[in-house]
Amino acid sequence: MAYNKDIPYNDLPDLPPVTFTESNELLRHLAKASRYLGELNGLCESLPDPSLLINTIVLQESKDSSAIENIVTTQDELYKAATEEGSTNHAAKEVLSYREALYVGLRKMQSQENLLLSSTLIEIVQTIKQNDSGIRKTPGTALKNAITGSVIYTPPCCEDEIREKLTALETFINDSENSELDPLIKMALIHYQFEAIHPFGDGNGRTGRILNALYLSQQKLLTQPVLYLSSYVVKYKTEYYQLLKDVTENGNWNDWVMFMLTAVIETAQLTTGKIRAMLMLREEMEVSMKEILGSSFNYDLLQLLFTMPYLKIELLERKQLAHRQTAASWLKKLVASNILSPQKMGRSTYYVNYKLMDLLTAQ
User: Fold this and answer.
1) Phi and psi torsions of 286, nearest 5°
2) Is the CB of residue 133 less than 8 Å from the CB of residue 202?
3) Whole-model pTM above 0.85?
4) Which structural domains are found in the chain, ordered by start?
């Protein structure tokens, strides 16, 4: 039966696609993507304490991935929420939930013999949404144009059909021995398929982008989930959705895979550059802080400046780095020496590692 955007796409074929062929241009792109991704991975593996830098990179990825779904938060709101234990900003909390969901997915995958299972994807979406949502059960789901209200795509229906398609996708993801496809090409195919199945009522886009990171980790292409892919999708959001649509309607896999490989190339270079710049900044800051704080220099304070760039006196107390008077003295000296910038928000004063923030937000 011919594809019809107005009826559930229960005829969505399983992977791999029979019409996909690897052009010479695509293979050249693949070689380039593999090279830049390898460089990024080598840099991550050389870090003495990867979590130091990775938390902030992942938070930026969370922010951009959420922005694709029109969940928008400012840097101030986001880092304030990361610093506070009980933030009330809904958008910022959703972004933080995305980061938590990525780590939940990683831990789950590692505990299941490195297999990426449907149950893990359900746990990811539940963490993102902070509820007990699962596979779509009710018919009538259709993706519509936000302005005109016209149907763009109707995903498969209903629960049994969706579970069957997820099981087939799960087999494709985890069967690396019988696949002749390069993992980066497989990642592009997997991402399309997951979005086409659209298994959840909400959170599919974000879950699908977390799936990208988990798959690269599963394939040992990245030891840390730091690829900043969502920044590329935000930049080319219209093209991203158009290419997904073109696969569904016309079987145009080539342009879709090329788009995803270009995203890997650009974001691997961007992320490598950011991590190198962060390492340089940390070295410079360590030298300056030792001069400014003298014998009271605390290495944990330096670490905290790079994992939570918005500091508060109360945070230093909570982390048991120092008593209130000492914490206030440290922060005051770092402001006076132009290491930190004070920012008043409501009744609270935040001390911002503004050089790191400039670096993270630069495109």
Assistant:
1) -60, -45
2) yes
3) yes
4) 37-266 (1.10.3290.10), 275-361 (1.10.10.10)
| Tokens representing residue 331 in the block | 């922060």
Instruction: State pLDDT tens for residues 262-315.
Output: 999 999 999 899 889 989 999 999 999 999 999 999 999 998 998 888 899 998
What local confidence, expressed as pLDDT, does residue 146 receive? 82
